[in-house]
Design a protein that fits this description.
Keywords: Membrane. The protein is mainly beta and 616 residues long. The chain contains 6 helices and 27 strands. It folds into 4 domains: 88 residues, membrane protein fhac (Ubiquitin-like (UB roll), Roll), CATH 3.10.20; 119 residues, Ubiquitin-like (UB roll) (Roll), CATH 3.10.20.310; 65 residues, membrane protein fhac (Ubiquitin-like (UB roll)), CATH 3.10.20.310; 225 residues, Beta Barrel (Porin), CATH 2.40.160.50. The strands form 5 sheets. It has a 16-stranded antiparallel beta sheet, with no helix packed on it. Strands 1-3-2 form a 3-stranded mixed beta sheet, covered by helices on one side. A hairpin with a 4-residue loop joins strand 5 and strand 6. The chain starts with 10 loop residues before the first strand and ends with a strand.
């Protein structure tokens, strides 16, 4: 029948003959791509595809340094249809015998001798290493980048060649780099500005005309501009010489061997690889001299105004409504204004902040005013405040995943405090605060492994009596991955306030705890010092928690936990409030969603808690 002449996809069986995993993976990928074409083909086409599969195996072996292999492909059949049995005798793997790096242009001057030696020392594909095509291309690209990222923007690779001796299994490598002239940075040209004043560009892109080109500086300027709220995109580069052509691949550098025609990957930019091409035209300047190129800054401004609103729900505060209005450029100045409000059953607040652009060192400064009212556990506080903050985020050294956050604050506040069943008073204060956080986690919003450490403190004074007070707080959290999906987590927090006698301190300086993100099984901030019919901030705090989360798949899971702690007049007066329970876990793009049922042992009460995001 006609249908019997059509083939199914053959089953591939590879006897690798001792080739390493990377080579086997390259072979499998190459042959599978051809095997997929075998479906619904007639017999004549199948024979051609078998030959292509063998050639692809040879090509894949060549990319891994095997230039004299023996490959046989035998077709067979089993209950599932046709099979291709590929047997490989790879032969000796080619290794690098010699490396010849040649340089021309201004970089050959004596003042660059140490740099040239460093380029030779840092060459990645060294003598004695296996000749792998991807490593060869990567080594050339790295060499060209190392030359062109500082001083020599116009550097190009004039030739590169890998001479393969298949009989001896050796490779001789030759690479020639023309550095071109030394490039200096000229006048600044900015395009794309409409509303944002040019003074913002000048705030970041600072250099003396004639300074030596350094790509790292351009990258930093670009990153600084992109980190502001004023631009959707920012691009910083040097203008290339007009109509200067890039090299057009004069010489082939691909290692050739039987079956290797399709083996080499695309070569790096600036690397000549097309056989038969003509050499590029000579540059229009002395390659041993200097050239000054303008600095080009191109920006795309962000929308000048933005309004957002949200609605949420909390197990303690109930429905929460929030809104935010944001405006870039205020009265022609490169600053951002944010104003908004938030309302729920326990707290209502409105604010206006002016945010300055980040500084060259990454500091983010802001000033603002605040009106805030809260009524929690019988303590009603109405605050009017004027404050300023400075924050900084930075990465750890190298490729470290560690992140650091630092925040400093200064606040002038007047609190109107009313204690249910007790006193009412006004508390004017001035405070200075600082907090340092170190984050080392695998995922910022849903960690399975890592830790967080935070140290914060502050000093203040009551403006009516001149009494000082001091606060110190230490927090830590640690995650351990268990098996493929499960997580074990511990969390701890300790704090202390020092003040004289009966000095009243601001509500946010004292300690209260209890609720979804502290001690589950108790009402929100219900653990503290009892005064009349209210719970007020305590001078000391100690909280600990341990939790085990088991996930059934990547999204759904359950957890068991024990929380304990207290906020009291002193550590010696503490009586631990213990809460324990079980809950559901759902991973979402905004972080894990927790739905917990917890029993508070002190109050002998069962409570439901839910929260979104990590507890820290």
């Amino acid at each position: 029948m006609a249908g019997d002449a059509l083939a199914k996809r053959p089953e591939i069986i590879v006897d690798p003959g001792g080739v390493p995993p990377a080579a086997l993976q390259a072979i499998t990928q190459a042959v599978d791509a051809i095997a997929r074409l075998a479906e619904d083909q007639d017999g004549g086409e199948i024979n051609r595809l078998r030959r292509r599969a063998r050639d692809a195996t040879l090509a894949a072996l060549a990319t891994q340094g095997y230039f004299s292999p023996k490959v046989t492909l035998e077709a067979g059949t089993d209950i599932g249809g046709e099979t291709w049995d590929i047997a490989i005798v790879p032969g000796k793997r080619t290794v690098v015998e010699s490396v010849n790096l040649e340089f021309s242009g201004r970089i050959t001057r004596p003042e660059y001798a140490q740099r040239v030696q460093r380029l030779r020392d840092d060459w990645r594909l060294k003598e004695g290493q296996p000749f792998i095509n991807s490593d060869w291309n990567r080594a050339k690209a790295t060499l060209l980048d190392d030359v062109s990222t500082r001083d020599f923007l116009l550097a190009r690779m004039t030739s590169s060649r890998a001479d393969i001796n298949a009989d001896k299994a050796t490779a001789s490598l030759h690479v020639s780099i023309d550095s071109g002239p030394q490039v200096r940075m000229g006048e600044l040209n900015t395009t794309g500005l409409k509303r944002v004043p040019e003074t913002l560009i000048d705030r970041y892109v600072r250099y003396n005309v004639g300074a030596a080109f350094d790509q790292n500086r351009l990258d930093q300027w670009q990153q600084d501009l992109q980190s502001t709220a004023f631009f959707r995109g920012a691009f910083v580069s040097l203008e290339q010489p007009g109509d200067t052509q890039q090299p057009t691949d004069p010489i082939s550098d691909r290692a050739r061997a039987p079956g290797s025609e399709d083996a080499a990957a695309a070569a790096p930019a600036g690397d000549p690889t097309v056989s038969g091409g003509m050499p590029p035209p000579p540059a229009q300047f002395d390659s041993d001299g200097e050239v000054t190129l303008p600095v080009q800054v191109r920006v795309v401004e962000a929308p000048p105004k933005r309004f957002s609103a949200s609605i949420g729900v909390d197990d303690e505060a109930g429905v929460r409504v929030e809104s935010l209005y944001r405006q870039n450029v205020v009265f022609g100045q490169p600053v951002t204004m944010e104003t908004g409000f938030g309302v729920d059953r326990l707290r209502q607040r409105a604010f206006l902040d002016i945010l300055l652009p980040p500084t060259e060192r990454g500091y983010r400064d802001s000033v603002g005013i605040l009106a805030d009212r809260s009524d929690i556990q019988g303590l009603e506080v109405t605050r009017y405040a004027l404050g300023a903050t400075r924050s900084q985020e930075r990465k750890g050294a190298g490729d470290s995943r560690v992140e650091y956050e630092t925040r400093w604050g200064a606040l002038l506040a007047q609190d109107h405090v009313k204690i249910d069943g007790g006193d009412s008073f006004t508390l004017p204060t001035a405070t200075l605060t600082a907090e340092w956080l170190r984050r080392d986690v695998d995922n910022k919003y849903d960690p399975r492994e890592g830790n967080l450490i935070s140290v914060g403190g502050g000093v203040g004074v009551t403006l009516d009596t001149g009494e000082p007070y001091t606060r110190l707080r230490l927090r830590g959290q640690k995650w351990w991955p268990i098996g493929k999906l499960d997580v074990l987590m511990i969390r701890a927090e300790v704090g202390r306030v020092w003040s004289n006698g009966d000095v009243q301190v601001p509500d946010d300086f004292g300690f209260r705890t209890g609720g979804a993100r502290s001690i589950r099984g108790y009402r929100y901030q219900s653990i503290g010092v009892h005064r009349d019919n209210a719970v007020v901030g305590a001078p000391t705090l100690l909280v600990g928690s341990i939790e085990y989360d088991h996930y059934f798949d990547e999204r759904w899971g359950m957890g068991v936990f024990v929380d304990a702690g207290d906020a009291a007049e002193s550590f010696g007066d503490m009586k631990m409030s213990v809460g324990y329970g079980v809950g559901a876990r759902v991973r979402t793009p905004a972080g894990p969603l927790f739905l917990d049922v917890a029993y508070g042992q002190r109050e002998r009460d069962l409570r439901l808690h839910f929260s979104l995001g990590i507890a820290f």
